[in-house]
Amino acid sequence: MVESVKKSGPGPGQEARPARTDRALDPLDLFDVRSELSEDEALVQDTVARFVDDQVLPVIRECFEQHRFPQELIPEIAALGLFGSSIEGYGCAGLNSVAYGLICQELERGDSGLRSFVSVQSSLVMYPIHEFGSDAQKDRWLPAMARGEAIGCFGLTEAHGGSDPASMKTHARRQGGDWVLNGSKMWITNGTIADVAVVWARTDEGIRGFLVERGMPGFSAPEIENKMSLRASVTSALFFDNVRLPESSVLPGVSSLRGPLSCLSQARYGISWGPIGSAQACLQEMLAYTETRVLFGSPLSHKQLIQVRLADMARRITAAQLLSLRLGRLKDAGRLHPTQVSLAKWNNVRMALDIARDCRDMLGGSGISAEYVPVRHMLNLESVITYEGTESVHQLVVGKELTGVSAF
Ligand code: TGC
Ligand code: FAD
User: Fold this and answer.
1) How much distance in Å is there from the Cα of 219 to the middle of ligand 1?
2) Given ligand 1 and candidates 120, 189, 255, 257, which is best to mutate, with the most ligand atoms within 8 Å of its CB?
């Protein structure tokens, strides 16, 4: 990680002076969390960090400005084994949960949109097919998705209220040997570019997951335009107008809300790591900027108030790193509880959003320019704090755990 941070090159504020070399500690990892990683985990982190430095950072600002998802990166992401990395077999890497977390962290150091893309493909599409799918569904989709030749999306949220998926209106009815699907989904990452959508629908047999393929008659997935957040990511609506689906398109292994909610636990786990990367990118840029920005006769980094703000960022990043690593070790030991995931997603996204906003302010007027990373991360994190359960939803999950009372 230290290496990757050093390699990521100077931001606009970094050019006037050489970087400091007298640090005893890595400012982005004050508690040396890196030394807690196994050799394999560290290798995964370094590999993804190099990809982000070499291939993501040079293009991502322009993608964000142009509202364009960098689809050309998909083959390299696949070649690195980042799709479905926790799955064993089917051409997947079979990595542990800490490695998956580190993948999310490094990708989000580049941009939340790229991490979203990999989260959805891995945790929200490949995971349910692997967990709840038939052998034929697994054979058909998992190897192609691991190779990046098939892209997936996950349709749970509906326009009338995403926080309460139990109120979904999209429904499927049996007709002859087939199913007929009607309804719509909103705010769906990857929707327009997906070859297959995992769509959750109400049926007479409970909430079931359907694999809906691009081009099926009655299915459309228009992109949502004019987003001010996650602009380097595709977000779509999904419409189903009497879409006829064979029985073989139903995920046989689940018929309740437990299906989609268990996918969310996987994705939220990864999201707890991701924003650590955004926050590190912001702090790294601020350390350089405050060293070279001279106001009232001395660099900003010599001012007490600035040091307090930088120290507070390091404090919060350190706490988030320790929290996610512990969460990953619990997950790998099979001891993860969804409430712990909620606490981590809440804490770490809030941490990163606050840091990105504070960095934007410390840059003064320059902070509103995409030449510096904080405003892009800040805008992205406004989505991250909303999707996969809003901050309030996660607070209420923890509240329910503490009191035994559901206050939704
Ligand atoms: P509740 O009655 O509590 O539970 C229903 C069933 O689900 C089980 N369950 C879980 N299972 C696994 N993991 C979890 N986290 C689970 N939470 C609940 C539960 O045991 C029960 O099972 P069973 O077998 O007894 O039926 O459900 P509820 O209706 O009271 O809802 C609780 C609540 C509010 C927490 C839930 O609805 C919720 O999480 N709402 C937020 C919805 C959300 O997060 N949507 C995200 C959509 S996907 C997305 O945003 C992708 S962004 C992608 C990207 O770009 O990265
Ligand atoms: P609402 O549920 O209407 O919430 C509105 C407000 O009410 C929020 O502040 C919320 O915290 C608050 N609130 C909700 N319940 C309570 C309560 N009980 N008490 C107090 N306050 C409450 N969904 C998918 O299915 N798949 C995807 O791939 C996907 N990708 C997304 C990508 C982006 C960029 C975005 C922005 C969203 C995406 N979503 C996706 C949808 C996302 O999960 C929802 O936006 C989110 O769950 C919130 O639902 P909502 O937008 O309908 O807000």
Assistant:
1) 25
2) 257
